[in-house]
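ok trying this again, last paste got cut off
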Amino acid sequence: MSWSERREGWTAQAEDARDDGDIDYGRVIHSSSFRRLQGKTQILNLGDSDFYRTRLTHSLEVAQIAAGLTKQLAKSFAEHPAASHLPDRSMIQAIGCSHDLGHPPFGHGGEIALNYCMRSHGGFEGNGQTLRILSRLESFSANAGANLSRRTMLGMLKYPVAYSQARNPALVPKLFSGPTTLDIIDDAASIPPKCYMDSERDVVEWIIKTFSTAERDEFQTCDPAAGKHHKPRHKSLDCSIMDAADDIAYGVHDLEDAIALGLIDKEILSAALLDKCPSFLDALKSKYPDETENNVFSNMVEGLYAGSSMRKRFISRLVHHFITAAEFVEHDAFDEPLVRYRMTLKKPQGDFLKALKRLVADEVIFSPNVQHLEFKGQTMVLSVFEALQVDPKRLLPRDAYAKFAAANNDPRIICDHVAGMTDTYLLRTYERLFAPRMGSVFDKL
């Protein structure tokens, strides 16, 4: 067994100069699941705008930042025992590009809706769907999906705990009991645990087959949390790099979009960050003394709210600040280097990034403007799923129904179909099924 092994036998042709990471990166980039990310919402559903971020552009940015973090670790800690185990550029970019493949239409509202719909059939979780796509649903092999190398699969396994193990039995997906004419999902009860689905348990067993028995048990542990689902405890070195890159892209680039759209007031940003960014202010004073003669914090805020060129300059400085704060941490419960060593950000920079993420969450994601759209999308996902489930032979596209019938009418196939829809495809399907307009037989399913 090796980290280069694939679940389904495959051997590169003799003249092929690519490494495992190159092959995996190519398969992710050329997958239909990756292309669909251009039609899935990052935070804001803005139609056909060519500037604001989608899940596709977000994933490309995560891949680029992850590659930067990897290179920074290799430079800053060249003598560290973990340095020789860092992934190559193509592999970490493959992991970064694939991290959101399982994200359903309409953001976390769609994820909660599908978890409710699958409440009696193993649930749904977006990261778990990513594993399912790469190991089952993509078309690069007969029975192993994209058939990526074991190491790449370990890197994208963000939560190595099964749904049945991670879920809190007290949290049962349900509808609100109050409304009498509307079926509204109770989000707090229906949010899924961070996990993979039990349907992919055999895939995870294959991924961690190289671990000792004790390491396998420890790697799949989770910690209970009062009133919440259990929290997975571990992830691999490669996954920790990808996860940090995702946080940086979320905290910095989504902030950039929010400021550009006028969704975060300057005063609110100032109040939220005033005491949270001393490391960044110190860096600005050190590197750009000509710009910081007066109040360095005010200069940063004004720069973020200036024109696009100045804002981009400060956004780039923020990304650089976080990338150069990367360091290794060690978990001595493991001998296997790929899980013994992880990446993290130094505490001052890590605390600053958390503050940026909280700001984006409070002022954008949980704002009524965004929540109205997420609520509407969640309702449409629920309606489409239940319509297809009630009469799949009548309503599913024929290729999807063939898979459904071949799987002995497993609702997971309907879930795969709905989860793979772009926002626009889901909306058009909803309108075709429920909107009063006549529609046409020539509308594409």
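PB: full thing came through this time. The longest strand covers residues 326-330.
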